[in-house]
Amino acid sequence: MVIPPLRRKVLRDLQQLWAQVLAIALVLAAGVATLILGNGAYASLHETRARYYEENRFADVFADLVRAPLALMGEIEAIEGVVAAEARIVKLGLLDLPTMTEPGSVLFVSLPGGDGAGLNRLYLRQGRLPDPQSAQEIVVSEGFAKAHRLEPGSRLPVLMNGKRRELLITGVALSPEFIYALAPGQMMPDPRRFGIVWAPRASLEAAFDLAGAFSNVVLKLAPGTDPDRVIEALDRLTARYGGIGASARADQVSHAFLDAELKQLSAMVKVLPPIFLLVAAMLVNMTLSRLIVLEREQIGLLKAIGYSSRAVAQHYVEFVLMIAVVGILIGFGAGAWLGAGLAQMYARFFSFPYLVFARDPQLYGLAAVITLAAALGGALYAVRSVVTLPPAVAMAPPAPVAYRQRMGWLRGILALRQTGVMVARHLLRWPFRTLSSTLGVAMAVAILVASLWSFGSINHMI
User: CA-CA distance, 283 to 285, in Å (whole number)?
Assistant: First the structure.
């Protein structure tokens, strides 16, 4: 296969300028990787959450109260738009573990039946559900079990309504209701000091003196139902039983924290990739402009022997495209690998039972198109000078820069020395280059600020 002369020149230029080429390709790869990993992780988590909620019937409305009779459930189920309602007992208990010196607590949640039916269904990791008639058997949350090395068959000493009991763990589970399990008053999950315990309803009725009553209700709404209207009706029914106001899924603690994290991830995708791509565009423009200046005589000779301005311009565009392709390929690999790792990290932190990976080919295509556009955008100005350069002018040395006497007023105001005048004159002579260089430095600083601010913020809050 015969390689055309200009194509060979592209390969030779890439070899000679390998350091600059690699630097630009890596910056482009960083933009591509950030775009892919952020969007990929967001799509994976969003899809995982949606499937987890649907399969385990996560409720739409939540309400706490002091004590209400089970007979009230008939009126609650009759609210327009409610397709399922579940009365539960939800109460706090204290841990009485000999290995703990600091205070700890658990949240007891009643199970609707031995088969695990109802809303907010459990996802068993180990063991089995408790016997509905047992007063001792329980299921504990996975994070709490790992923090205390508990497993099916272990005993858990707790204080329930002021009385000490030793409960038998039959299973370890996860729940869509407690993806982000926070104890009352806490800002961050602490599975060592707080856990979720699911127990048969009969045992909690006896322990907390709630026979024939409930202290919490969750509702599943029909699609398209206005949750505010249902909440208003539910609040009217529960007000006389100590209801403190129902809340929709959007305000449920676990869902709200997870949703905020997804929004933060989405914001990162919108902020960081453009910074990397803008910096890369500036680097492309700077490198190509200098290359064209160095090859000024060669450009004149090429045009003199018959190469058209379009062919010469295409040669430099191919040079930029080769750099962009290298950056895109590196970004594809790094973005896919980092995106999977980030999604798995989120899945572990937020206690998802599984992870649905989303690999949308359109995302990779979009990342490639945006990257190519950024690289070509940075090359446009430099390539334009190639097209407009006549052969005779190109082969002659460039004329000295003609500075105009416009610095007198600035020198009088700032009292600049001669070296300062030279610097200021040089900066004002090429305002676009000056502004682009300044913007490039600003974007580099922005990358550091955007990536490092969270460390100081979290430390300050802690």
Answer: 5
Residue 331 contacts residue 36 (beta carbons within 8 Å): yes
DSSP code of residue 133: T
Threshold 0.85, pTM exceeds? no
User: Assign residue 185 a region: left if phi > 0, alpha if psi is -120 to 50, beta otherwise?
Assistant: left
For the chain, counts of helices (H) and of strands (E): 14, 11
Distances in Å between the Cα of 93 and the Cα atoms of 67, 159, 183, 353, 370 are 17, 6, 11, 26, 55
- Specify burial of residue 457 (Cβ count, 10 A radius: 0-12, 13-18, 19+): exposed
- Closest among 122, 91, 112, 115 to 216, alpha carbons compared: 91
The model's pLDDT over 269-327, given as tens digits with 9 standing for 90+, comes to 788 788 777 777 777 777 777 777 777 777 777 777 877 777 877 888 888 888 889 88
The continuous run of DSSP H or E covering 383 comes out as helix 361-387
Contact between residue 384 and residue 345 where contact means Cβ atoms under 8 Å apart: no
Hey, how many other C-beta atoms are within 10 angstroms of the C-beta on 232?
12
Amino acid (1-letter code) at residue 176:
P
The sheet with strand 213-221 has its strands ordered as: 82-88, 213-221, 61-69, 247-248
